[in-house]
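Here is a typical protein record:
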Amino acid sequence: IIRRIWSQGVEIEFDLSRAGLTKLSLYILSLKQSERQDRAVELQAALNSAATKALRRAPLALGRVAAVLDRSRSSLGSRERRNRPLGVALAASCLLRNAAREYRSFWTPENEETEYEFLTRPAGQTALAEPLLAALEWRPDLIVIVSDGYENDPPQLVDQVARVYRETIGKGNTPEIVHMNPVFDADHYSPRRLGPTIPTVGLRDAEDIPTM
């Protein structure tokens, strides 16, 4: 299906059936909220199809997976890369859901109750500790955190939560936790870390997750 939108007087064609998963997520987030709602079934089907194609190219079979996804105001990204962090988080959630035997997403701040994750809007601070606690309580095999790493409500708490859980509560049954950062920190020439307890990798596109 090809949709046409207008940008600065130029007509742009976008084929939902051929776009990659991350590019499709960014396109969906560029639409007005009302259009996303009106086309929700169509857009969700396109996302699922793109995730299936990505996993066909790079197979990934996971067990019980939880994702902590950052939708704070900073997920709007920059003027040049509008919605990039949020778009990667949305695409990653879709890919992990299709790759996992069981899957749950935990957005931060708490997401509005909606069947479609692409209806979410950036808001609030980067508060990762509470959704991480909720994810740990669900007892997954793997927790993936997708965030730009600028935790500020409060700072560096999520790493402390992971460390205390690993040392005193979960011990040998603590799930693997990995932070995937869609934003390059120019000051440190690397993705910004959440702390020493949680390993961090850069994530340009959600389609790179199977390789990681």
User: Anything to note?
Assistant: The mean pLDDT is 87. Helices lie at 21-30, 33-38, 40-57, 84-99, 129-138, 157-169.
